[in-house]
Inverse folding.
């Protein structure tokens, strides 16, 4: 036996595990619930400003917003997820990049950028016909100090596929 191998700690002799893949999400709230969207899809976070309404549109389509020469649809996620309407001084609009262009998502507050390990993300359960979970990429537990929160991770392309302008 070589002296070199005896002097090395066991952890150095064991093949190393690949580093965990970390994913970054912007967390935000709607009511008492916390959600996350992939940070790579976030273009900008802005204070809420009322968009120009569109006649005969879905209730969750608040209207259109012109921003630096680009016209963007603005969707209220509270209304889309079945919560009562309500904007206040903390309400923000998260601009996300979608395949068809940029859209605004109105949320109650933006919290943090979370770095989550891929293995902590669990699939969203099928909750039956009454609850639409198609827009969820998964769920993850997140410890914030002494409190643990369950974060619903949103799949932006699937969410936007369920939103319409009419």
């Amino acid at each position: 036996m070589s002296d070199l191998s005896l002097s090395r700690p066991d952890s150095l002799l064991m093949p190393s595990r690949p580093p965990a893949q970390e994913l970054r999400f912007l967390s935000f709230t709607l009511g008492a619930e916390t959600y996350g969207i992939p940070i790579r899809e976030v273009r900008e976070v802005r204070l809420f400003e009322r968009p120009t309404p569109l006649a005969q549109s879905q209730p969750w389509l608040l209207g259109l917003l012109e921003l630096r020469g680009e016209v963007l649809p603005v969707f209220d996620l509270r209304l889309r997820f079945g919560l009562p309407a309500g904007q206040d001084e903390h309400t923000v609009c998260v601009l996300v990049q979608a395949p068809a262009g940029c859209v605004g998502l109105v949320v109650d507050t933006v919290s943090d950028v979370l770095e989550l390990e891929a293995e902590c993300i669990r699939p969203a359960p099928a909750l039956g016909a009454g609850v639409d979970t198609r827009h969820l990429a998964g769920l993850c537990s997140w410890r914030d100090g002494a409190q643990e929160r369950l974060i619903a991770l949103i799949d932006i392309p699937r969410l936007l596929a369920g939103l319409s302008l009419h």
